[in-house]
């Protein structure tokens, strides 16, 4: 892999809660996680996006990003990921410009195509249209972010000689980080995105060859990525055994929910430890530091976006992981 860049840590904020949880009571816990991350040297905060998750409760992404940004001055705020094809790009461009202004230019728009059939059905958009809608939306948003009047007559979207109400803080708009899990999508991320946002749910066996594809595509298009971020489930315990025991139940709950939504889950005959290998980073401080180094060696990634909380994990374990990761970063 190319020469080492400075490693950054980001925190993926859990905004999902089991049925029966009083979500309002959990907001102070999120703020405490943000403050702990800032004190530990984390540089960024990231937020997930879905609709229709009942019975799993979920806070919606845009108000949460704006709310948390007020508690995290100077930190980067990012969507991870916004489901772009189900939203009008004028709406997304306007809200992204507002978030970019609110954060002083520290907003990143992470976007993906989505995959959940109920969401597409509810918005009356065929799943087969997600890629062309995605492509058209990106081009239109980038034109709108110039602050000039735009005329666009596309297959899905129309703007008639109009401009958005607020120019982004950064000229040209916030960086676009594109999530992708297939070769064609990774090549598109290289062609039109500022970074490929890796979501390591498929494991290193899938990510490593896709990273080769991505770097080759960057070279082909004569482009340079702003960084190489990866989102990983991470838990750091006092011992490796304690770490697995603490996060096993919450992670199994989370990935059972993913399986019910159509993503590949853990096969019944596979142990949690085997499922976690090369997919999650779990252990004590020493083994987690070694795993981070291994990911950097295999992928050349330099921005680790760690999800350290899942439905059912006690707050004390989350805060301990954040502080231990900060110690690893400073070591």
UniProtKB/TrEMBL annotation:
Pfam families: Bac_luciferase (PF00296). Coiled coil: none annotated. It comes from the Bacteria. The keyword Oxidoreductase applies. Residues 7-299 form the Luciferase-like domain. GO terms for molecular function: oxidoreductase activity, acting on paired donors, with incorporation or reduction of molecular oxygen. Keywords: Oxidoreductase. This is Luciferase-like domain-containing protein.
């Amino acid at each position: 892999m190319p020469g080492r860049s400075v490693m950054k840590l980001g925190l993926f904020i859990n905004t999902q809660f089991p049925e029966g949880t009083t979500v309002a009571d959990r907001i102070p816990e999120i703020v405490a996680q943000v403050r702990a991350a800032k004190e530990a040297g984390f540089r960024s905060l990231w937020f997930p996006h879905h609709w229709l998750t009942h019975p799993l409760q979920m806070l919606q992404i845009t108000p949460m990003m704006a709310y948390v940004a007020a508690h995290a001055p100077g930190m980067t705020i990012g969507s991870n990921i916004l489901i772009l094809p189900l939203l009008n790009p004028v709406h997304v461009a306007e809200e992204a410009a507002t978030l970019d202004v609110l954060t002083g230019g520290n907003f990143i728009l992470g976007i993906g195509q989505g995959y959940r059939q109920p969401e597409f059905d509810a918005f009356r958009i065929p799943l087969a249209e997600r890629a062309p809608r995605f492509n058209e939306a990106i081009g239109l948003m980038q034109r709108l972010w110039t602050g000039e009047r735009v005329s666009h007559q596309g297959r899905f979207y129309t703007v008639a000689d109009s401009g958005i109400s607020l120019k982004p803080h950064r000229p040209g708009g916030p960086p676009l980080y594109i999530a992708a899990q297939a070769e064609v999508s990774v090549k598109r991320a290289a062609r039109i995105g500022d970074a490929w946002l890796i979501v390591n749910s498929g494991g290193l066996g899938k990510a490593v060859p896709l990273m080769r594809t991505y770097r080759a595509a960057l070279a082909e298009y004569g482009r340079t990525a702003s960084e190489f971020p990866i989102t990983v489930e991470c838990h750091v315990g006092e011992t490796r055994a304690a770490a697995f025991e603490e996060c096993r139940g919450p992670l199994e709950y989370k990935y059972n929910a993913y399986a019910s939504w159509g993503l590949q889950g853990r096969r019944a005959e596979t142990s949690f430890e085997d499922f976690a290998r090369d997919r999650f980073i779990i252990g004590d401080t020493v083994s987690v530091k070694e795993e981070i180094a291994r990911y950097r060696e295999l992928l050349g990634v330099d921005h680790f976006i760690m999800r350290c909380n899942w439905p059912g994990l006690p707050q004390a374990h989350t805060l301990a992981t954040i502080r231990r990761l900060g110690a690893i970063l400073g070591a």
